[in-house]
Amino acid sequence: MDQLLHHLRHLGFTEMESKIMVELARQGSASGYEVAKRLGVSRSNVYATLQRLEQRGFLRCSPGEPAKYSMLKPEEMTRMISDQMHTSLAYVERSMPQSEPEKPVFYNVEGDKNVFENLSRELAAAQHEIVVDVWREEAELLREDLQRAESRGVRLLWSCEGGEGMLDQPLPLPRLPISGAGTGRKFSLVVDRRWCMLGMRGESCPTQAVVTEHPVMTGLLLSHFAQELVLYELEQDMGRELESRYGGRYADIAARYWSSFSSENEQ
């Protein structure tokens, strides 16, 4: 009895409704007076509950004086409840307001395994474009993932420092020194102009990277990459003239800014 009442309450019936339904199911049919007497509760509460259950379709009321109430068959009642529940659940699923789950703006990834698993997953999901700025060692590790993406029709833009020939037509572009940045090799990738990773890897430093979909960071990396391509094109067209005027790899220009920046950091 207690278990049955417990489950009826879980289906949304009040304690009084549950007791009346069980009592009517046991007796077959009864008047409001008879139900109230059997349960030992006030007739006004019983009559109000009987009317409510009848309006909801769970009870039948026979004409006459006094009116007699009876329960639906158990299978009819449960089918009715099931239909109502499915209707309500479907409506809630369709109509409940939805918001995009918040993603961390930036998160850190540490260790070779975690970094390259993150990279492989994103490269495999790339649909339009991959921009890669890496050293020779990292280019070799990413070779198969990049080739698979390119074979799917994904546009591949990349530069490689430390040696030509690791991939087709590498762009060995100038790298400016960054004071206090350690001895690791810096790398960055941007996938579909949406997701990016910026990190460092080397024999003397742990592999670490920052991952984000923040548009400011992806924009900065794309802008930096575009500037490197422009400088590379200028070197190809005006290499000797640029070198004679500004020094190899623009060393004279870089010295103006990076030397003062370095000395400020050291103070």
List the helices and strands and how they pair.
Blueprint: H1 2-10, H2 15-27, H3 32-39, H4 43-55, E1 59-62, E2 68-71, H5 74-95, E3 106-110, H6 112-125, E4 129-135, H7 136-151, E5 155-161, E6 185-191, E7 195-202, E8 205-212, H8 215-246, H9 251-266
Parallel strand pairs: 4-5
Antiparallel strand pairs: 1-2, 3-8, 4-6, 6-7, 7-8
Keywords: Coiled coil
Protein name: Transcription regulator TrmB N-terminal domain-containing protein
Coiled coil: 109-152
Structure description:
54% of the residues lie in helices and 19% in strands. With 267 residues, the chain is an alpha+beta fold. It folds into two domains: 83 residues, Arc Repressor Mutant, subunit A; 148 residues, Endonuclease, Chain A (2-Layer Sandwich). The strands form two sheets. It has a six-stranded mixed beta sheet, with helices on both faces. 20% of the residues are buried.
